[in-house]
Each structure stands twice: as C-alpha cells, then as structure tokens.
C-alpha cells in the first residue's frame, strides 16, 4: 500500500497514527477506571486485563502484519522491545509520583503475581529458540503452551485479587483501591464499555498503519528488523502505556498504573503466539536471531528488577524514586546503546 508513497508522507502517516493511538489511550484510561469501579474488578485487574490488552492492540497488529509478510525478526523484536519500553515507563511514572516510591504506594498482591507470570511467559520463547526446530501446521507447540499459560495466569491473578493469602504492610503512603469511594459501584457499564470498544478499534487500525510504515523504513533505509522493531514501532505502539500510566498516576489510580504495565506486558507475550501463527515459513522461533533473544533477556531482567522493587517496597530512594526505577532506566539505556552502536 505504501510502496509508491514518498518517505515524507510515510513518516507523516506514522506520526499521525502514533498520535491517534495516544489520544485514544488517554480517553481509554478514564473509561477503564470507571469500568473497574462499576464492576468492582479492582484497578490492578482492570489495568492488567482491560487497559493492558486494549493499549497493546496496535502492537499486536504490527507483529502479526510483520510475521505475515515473512519478517520474523521484526515481529518478535516489536513484541519484546515493547515489553522493555513499557517496563521503563513505570520508572518514568515513579519520577512523576513525588509522594513516595510508586512501587511502595501501589502495594497489590495481584501485581506481584502478574510479574511472576510475565517472567514465566518470557522464558517459554527462550526455551523454544534454544530447543529443536519443530512445528505442526507451521506453529511451534510452545506458542500454544504460551497462550494456555496466559489464560491460566489471568485466572489465577483474578483469584489472588479476590482472595489474597497475604496482604502488604500498610503505611501512610500506601494507596488503597476502594471502588465504593468513587461512587461508581453498581452503575451500568454499557456506555463506557461501548466507548472503550470504539477506542480499541481505532488503536487497532492505527497499528496496521504503523506496521506498514515500519516495513517501508526497513526496506528503504536498509535498517535491521530488530532495530526498527525494538526501538521504532515497539516504542511508538507502547506510547499509550506511557500516557495511560502517567494519567493513572495523576488520577491517583496507582494500582491501575502498575497493573496496566505489567498486565499489558503479559498480554504482549501473546504477540509471539499470534506472530507464529501468521508466519507461514515454519516456526518463527527458528527464524529469529540473537538480537531478538537479547531483547527477550532485557525484558526478563527489567521485569525481575521491577518484581524485586514491588517486594522490597522501598519508601523513598535516590532522587525521590526507588532504586529499582534507577536500575530499570540503566538497563534499558545499556540495551539501546548495544542495539544502536554495538551491532
């Protein structure tokens, strides 16, 4: 579609689609908070399932489009690069929340469990890449296991939310999620749900435009697929997570902010399953390279640091943010430096 367009027009469409995704995500954050209160789902679960899945839609469209066109590295790097970028966004949100360390204030067992689940899900593609090249009907068995593990993890995370077996120590900086305080509990969710669905459709359409533009950049500038995927389309399609996180923090919905990032990241692992199905030249795991494996490891390392911060719950760290936020910024900066300068 974009083959005959000028590069300036392609870049303009890329920027316009990214701006539309951001605008839609801002509105979606408020609606997700309303839905969480009216259904009594809770901010952490709503952030992880509803908001996280919705804001990830543009990214999954990019990965599927790339895989269908035969570019396995573009598809995988877009998925795992987005996970690393979105984890970084929590560190940036920590800078915004001045009262205390964000991970301290947003104490929620469901977020801890989802972080553990994310580490499990990220380990599966690494095992598939390192293992034998097998595929049935063009799909690796690990892709099916990944999908089933995600569904099981969502169910278990819901159980943790509804019937936690432990509770975090309360401090004066702990922020509670009480739907009754908002005055929304028990009201109809039909209108906000329909509006939310419309915004999701917009974000999905914009994701397709971003995918086409990214593919043209790879072809015309002879860039590596992992570079464009991990630092180009992944970052642009992840901007909704940055916006929704900052908006949620300003609204005081801290569990929604943290849960949206972690839950969005767990949903992003399904990009790999969908990409493997769309990739028709065999298993996608056999077609990716070490650059993509590097971004998988980066995502796992940043998630592990985040999980440590959620458990440690440091009240105030250097420069008013937690030590885990400083470490996540340093890890991501090193990963970018390696991708840009050491390849």
In words, what does this structure look like?
The chain is mostly helical and 343 residues long. It is built from 13 helices and no strands. The protein has one domain (7-163, 190-341): Up-down Bundle (A middle domain of Talin 1). It starts with 6 loop residues before the first helix and ends with a helix.
Number of domains in the coordinates? Answer: 1
The name of the CATH superfamily reads: NCX, central ion-binding region
Overall, the morphology is globular
Helix content: over 70%
Average pLDDT figure: 83
| First and last CA, distance | 31 Å
Briefly note the CATH topology name: A middle domain of Talin 1
Number of strands: 0
Structural class call reads: mainly alpha
Radius of gyration, taken over Cα atoms and rounded to an integer in Å: 19 Å
If classified by CATH, what would the architecture be?
Up-down Bundle
* Quaternary assembly: single chain
Main sheet properties: none
Outline of the structure:
The chain is built from 13 helices and no strands. It is mostly helical and 343 residues long.
List the helices and strands and how they pair.
Elements: H1 7-39, H2 43-55, H3 57-68, H4 72-96, H5 102-105, H6 109-130, H7 141-162, H8 190-221, H9 225-251, H10 254-268, H11 270-278, H12 290-312, H13 323-341
Key descriptive features of the protein:
mainly alpha, A middle domain of Talin 1, single chain, 343 residues, 0% strand, 13 helices, globular
């Amino acid at each position: 579609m974009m083959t005959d367009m000028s590069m300036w027009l392609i870049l303009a469409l890329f920027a316009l689609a990214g701006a539309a995704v951001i605008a839609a995500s801002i509105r979606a954050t408020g609606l997700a908070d309303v839905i969480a209160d009216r259904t009594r789902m809770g901010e952490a679960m709503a952030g992880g399932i509803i908001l996280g899945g919705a804001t990830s839609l543009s990214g999954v469209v990019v990965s599927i489009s790339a895989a269908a066109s035969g570019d396995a590295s573009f598809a995988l790097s877009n998925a795992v690069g987005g996970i690393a970028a979105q984890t970084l966004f929590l560190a940036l949100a920590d800078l915004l929340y001045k009262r205390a360390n964000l991970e301290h204030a947003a104490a929620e067992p469901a977020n801890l469990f989802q972080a553990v689940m994310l580490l499990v899900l990220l380990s599966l593609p690494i095992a598939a890449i390192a293992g034998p090249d097998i595929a049935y009907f063009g799909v690796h068995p690990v892709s099916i296991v990944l999908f089933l593990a995600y569904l099981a993890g969502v169910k278990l995370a819901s159980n943790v939310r509804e019937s936690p077996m432990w509770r975090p120590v309360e401090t004066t900086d702990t922020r509670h999620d009480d739907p009754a305080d908002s005055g929304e509990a028990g009201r109809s969710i039909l209108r906000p749900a329909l509006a939310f669905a419309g915004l999701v459709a917009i974000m999905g359409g914009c994701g397709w435009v971003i995918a086409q533009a990214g593919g043209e950049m790879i072809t015309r500038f002879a860039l590596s697929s992992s570079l464009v995927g991990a630092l180009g389309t992944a970052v642009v399609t992840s901007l909704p997570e940055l916006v929704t996180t900052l908006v949620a923090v300003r609204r005081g919905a801290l569990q929604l902010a943290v849960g949206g990032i972690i839950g969005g990241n767990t949903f992003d692992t399904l990009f790999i399953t969908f990409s493997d199905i769309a990739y028709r030249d065999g298993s996608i795991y056999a077609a990716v390279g070490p650059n993509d494996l590097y971004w998988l490891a980066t995502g796992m390392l940043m998630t592990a640091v985040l999980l440590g911060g959620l458990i440690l719950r440091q009240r105030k760290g250097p420069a008013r943010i937690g030590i885990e936020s400083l470490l996540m910024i340093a890890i991501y900066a090193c990963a970018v430096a390696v991708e840009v300068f050491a390849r």
